[in-house]
Amino acid sequence: MTVPGIADEPHTWPVINTRDIHRDAWVVALREDTVQRPGHPDETFSRLVMEHPGAVVVLAVDDEERVCCIRQYRHSGQAVFIELPAGILDAEGEDPQVTAARELREEVELKAEDWRLLLTNFPSAGITSELHHIFLARDLSHAGRGDFELHAEEAELEVVWVPFEELLDAVLDGRVREGPLVSAVLAYEVLRTRGQL
Length: 197
Hints:
Low-confidence stretches: none
Number of helices: 3
Mean pLDDT: 94
Helix content: 10-25%
CATH topology of the largest domain: Nucleoside Triphosphate Pyrophosphohydrolase
CATH class of the largest domain: Alpha Beta
């Protein structure tokens, strides 16, 4: 049985004032909005919003049901995380799957012949406009980076192949906690269990 109305709805409350806290040439910015509760003109409150153009995440699975993961340092999390190849949608108007294919090639030197959108989600709608497009990539083969050069944290990333069942166990017991990876792994498992892959 389907419950009517179970869907996100685009909507906005009145914004009385906006102030940039940080904005530069990079794709992410931070602003403070003063928001008014509808029907209550005297009730306003402040909300911080991290503007973000969105990102792609790739669950690349080979013929042996191993997942291509990376170990990468993340300064804000103060840890080396197990992650999936991913990247920001920083080329305006580019199809997310095209971005995903480029990120897969640049980060881990792979290409895929079979692509499927697993899901899209807002990782933290209370603070950011970022939307993740999470793809399944199969039928993998080697592809060079071309003239792309890894830098900063990416220059230290390590590629690791993890059997899917081990990765699922690591997610479920909390050893692996990076949000996009968790979403991708759980979506893949649900679709496999339902026979939809």
